Amino acid sequence: MKMLGILKHSIRYCRRPVAANLQSTIGSTNSNKRTLDGQLDLRCTHVRHVHDDAKRVAEHESVIFRQMFDGETYTYTYLLGCPETRAAILIDPVYEMVDRDVKVAEEMELDIIYGLNTHVHADHVTGTGKLKELLPRFKSVISKSSGAKADIHLEDGAEFKFGNQCIKCLSTPGHTGGCMTYVLPEHAMAFTGDALLIRACGRTDFQEGDSGKLYESVWRKIFTLPNHFYLYPGHDYRGFSRTTVAEEKKFNPRLTLDKEKFVQFMKELDLAYPKLIDKSLPANLKCGEISKEAILGSEDVLSHMGNH
Ligand SMILES: N[C@@H](CCC(=O)N[C@@H](CSS)C(=O)NCC(=O)O)C(=O)O
Predict the structure, then answer these.
(1) Whose CA is nearest to atom 5 of ligand 1?
(2) Would the CA dihedral through 270, 172, 281, 302 be positive or negative?
(3) 194 lines ligand 1 (CB under 6 A)
(4) For the chain, what is the radius of gyration of the CA atoms?
(5) What Gene3D superfamilies does the entry give (predicted)?
(6) ipTM reported for the complex, 2 dp
(7) pLDDT digits over 40-67, tens only?
(8) Whose CA is nearest to atom 13 of ligand 1?
């Protein structure tokens, strides 16, 4: 009875794929595993089932999802994986954090095939160039309107697939001319890059920045998603991780202003230029496909080589 309880518990929390594993292990146990008093050895079955489960982490999730943070540039990178095919993507990988990202994917038996940039970043170098060197099948992706070189260019309304997962691409210009928001409608998730930050939004003072356009992008594209959709930003500077459409429509201090006041507010924002802008822009206009020296500086390259 106790054993049956444990089995039921596993099924309740792990659902479909693990139930399939369980069937096959029970089958083999039935034929040759019995306890001393002749009963079926279900305990042994359970142990083997747990091992099977550990082999493919997160197989019970409808989409595999991890939010990862770079504490130097306050950037979020997102790993998304298809639980059935193990195909995976990274949204906004950071050059210096690529080894971390690849290791996590390997541990989860995911095959990263695409790196999607939400826009041409000004504050850090994208990891998509380095990922192309490390992973043979990997392709860089960005909007066509960004003007950046990439393997795949996306336009407003495009649908982008990895494994059995589908992403809807929404053009959301304003922070930069080529900003894209990536939506997973089936999972009620949207990745807004720097168009919308939690209780804030991206600056609009360079790279074809346009506060009027940003206001329209947010209200017409992001805020017309269902209220319960989770929004995941490109950065957070205050320790927040995610928000929802409903929360931002109600509490975002910038976007709840009327358009005229928003434009004035953005004009007066007066932020210092990002420290790495001179390095980041040329590198990101090629999705990071430039020499290590250009990204790190020649002294840093030598010290990196010493570390490996
Ligand atoms: N201090 C950082 C840059 C901070 C910054 O400007 N962030 C951008 C997004 S990255 S271009 C932004 O839009 N911020 C909006 C805001 O209200 O903070 C650095 O030197 O890199």
Answers:
(1) 274
(2) positive
(3) yes
(4) 23
(5) Ribonuclease Z/Hydroxyacylglutathione hydrolase-like (3.60.15.10)
(6) 0.99
(7) 344 334 344 444 554 577 778 899 999 9
(8) 202
